[in-house]
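Reference record
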Amino acid sequence: MENKKKSPVATIILTIICILWMYPIVLILINSLKKETAITTAGVFGLPTSETWNGIANFVASVTQMDFLKSFWYSLVISVMSVVLIMLCCSMAAWYIVRVNGALSKVFYYLCVFSMVVPFQMVMFTLAKTADTLRLNNPYNICIIYLGFGAGLAVFMFTGFVKGIPLEIEEAALIDGCSPLQVYFKVLIPILKPTIISTAILELMWVWNDYLLPTLVLDIKKYRTIPMAVQYFRGSYGHVQMGPMMASIMIDIIPIIIVYLVCQKYIIEGVVAGAVKG
C-alpha cells in the first residue's frame, strides 16, 4: 500500500487547533508569574516584564495559603482509590457480561451505558443525602460514589475489548488447572493492559480535576481537594488573589499532564480496541 502524502492544509488546521487548545494553559502559566496588580490592571494577556515579574512568589503563596500538602494528599487518595476500584470492578463486570451473555447481563450492560447520559444535576441532591446516611462523606469512602459514576465508561470500553478475546485462551487456562480468579488475574488482566491504562487515564483526569462532587459530599471545613482549595483565594467583596490562584491551578494540572504524557501512547490503542471490537 502506498503511503499517502500528508495534506498541508490538514497540518495547518490541526496546528491551529493545537495552539487554541494549549493557549489557556500558556495564559495561566504566564499570569502565575506576574504580580497581582499586573494581572488586574494591565490585563491578563500581556507577557511578564521586569516590573511585573513575580517569579515563584505566587507559587510559594499558593502552597502556604491553601495548605497544599493536605489538599494534595486528599486528591491523591481519592483519585488512586477511585481509579483502582473502577478498574477492578468494571473489568470483572465486563468479563461477566461478555462470557455469560444472558438477559440479566445485557440489562446490566445497558444500564451502565445509560448512566453515561444521565446529568449529574438530576441526582446530586439525593446523592448528598445518601452519602451522609451511608457515611461516604470522607476521602476514603467517596471512591464508592466515583465507582458508580465511572462505571458507565469503563464497562463500555472493557466489554468491547473482552469481546475480541478468544474464549479458547480462557478454556485452556481452566484445563491447565487455573481457577476463575487465576484466569482473570493471570490471563485476562495482561491482555486487557492497553484498555486498563487508557481507561485509567481518562478516569484519573476526571476524578483529579473534579470539583462539584467532593464539594457536594465532603465536609469542606475538614477535607479539601486541590480543586476545592483553589476557590479559597477568593476573598471578601469579590476580591480574588489572581497570582496565587493561577499558580495553584498550574500546580493542580502539572501532575495530570505528566501522567498523560507518560501514558499517552496507550490511550488511542485502548480506546480503539475497546470501542470497535465486537
Observations:
- The chain has two domains: 6-53, 63-274.
- Residues 6-53 form one domain.
